[in-house]
Amino acid sequence: MSLSSIVRAYIQFPLMFKLTFQLVMEAKLYRSEQLGMEASSFFVVSSSLLLLLVSTQISSAQLTRDFYRKTCPNVEQLVSSAVQQKFQQTFVTAPSTLRLFFHDCFVRGCDGSILLASPNNQAEKNHPDDISLAGDGFDTVAKAKAAVDSDPQCRNKVSCADILALATRDVIRLTGGPFYEVELGRRDGKVSTIASVQRRLPHPDFNLNQLNSMFSSNGLSQTDMIALSGAHTIGFSHCSRFSKRIYNFPRTLIDPTLNLQYAFDLRKACPLRVDPRIAINMDPVTPQRFDNQYFKNLQQGKGLFTSDQVLAIDPRSRDTVNLFASNEEAFNNAFVKAITKMGRIGVKTGHQGEIRFDCSRVN
């Protein structure tokens, strides 16, 4: 990349110039007595970062709301109908599909790699952080894929990654959440490994710094992170994910940030040596409605995970929690913005990846 190209790009993307300059200064590359060599280093670093930025911008730009207008104009109706039928069979369809989309996007980007199976159990879905993903989420995508492919015009034209994105929007709507337009045009990834999941998903005991760091690495802000956490309003969790807070918290046994009555209720639902398959609702008030009750619960010390409750405890995030708790429209707007941004993470477009014939295996 030439000097003139870099200059033009920095004019167009001033934030990238700022970030690159900070990187170079922190690395102590720019010293006047070594200008010749270090200026070269500066432009090498600049070019690399700029290429990363441009590729991200191009991938995002290739996602459009009407991507299938010619190849499969009825794709949204086909997916929506299949999702609604599945939802009528079991409510678990909603939280499991939403969680599936999140886990897909945070590992290798939104490319449907979470859907791939492995004959030797070495795919993403086999990682301990993914093993608890409910089968209903996978089944929702499979049924929606079958519905899309039942239309001769659409057969093998729509990616599994896009079907998952659409199904996620639909389950949010079916549970009373906001409707939003989904950007489409993702291609399906061909790689899915256990190793790729390592340290890519947030843990229930994360503090705010850890949450912000992980979400920031995916281009999401603190407000995005808090809004996306609000999806826990229809979530559920196995007891093992939070048992430390109610039985083995250091010195106090019960986490002192946890509402005491809520802690006792959790102990009743999750007694010691409970069946590991038992799961409970993350929102004890309106567990089957996508609303802002999650944030009201946090205000009362009823966040199930440490990573939930910390949002209301840390002064850096508390104001946002209070805003979302008092203004559901503000939460809905922030959530739509955040999940749209999340849907752009690491997408494959153009000639990258493929359109899978079967969402569970590569072609």
UniProtKB/TrEMBL annotation:
Disulfide-linked positions: 72-154, 105-110, 160-359, 239-270
Residues reported in the UniProt entry to bind substrate: 202
InterPro entries: Haem_peroxidase, Haem_peroxidase_sf, Peroxidase_pln, Peroxidases_AS, Peroxidases_heam-ligand_BS, Secretory_peroxidase
Residues given in the record as Ca(2+) 2 binding sites: 233, 283, 286, 291
Gene Ontology biological process: hydrogen peroxide catabolic process; response to oxidative stress
Residues that, per the record, bind Ca(2+) 1: 104, 107, 109, 111, 113, 124
Its job: Removal of H(2)O(2), oxidation of toxic reductants, biosynthesis and degradation of lignin, suberization, auxin catabolism, response to environmental stresses such as wounding, pathogen attack and oxidative stress. These functions might be dependent on each isozyme/isoform in each plant tissue.
Official protein name in the record: Peroxidase
Organism: Canavalia gladiata (Sword bean)
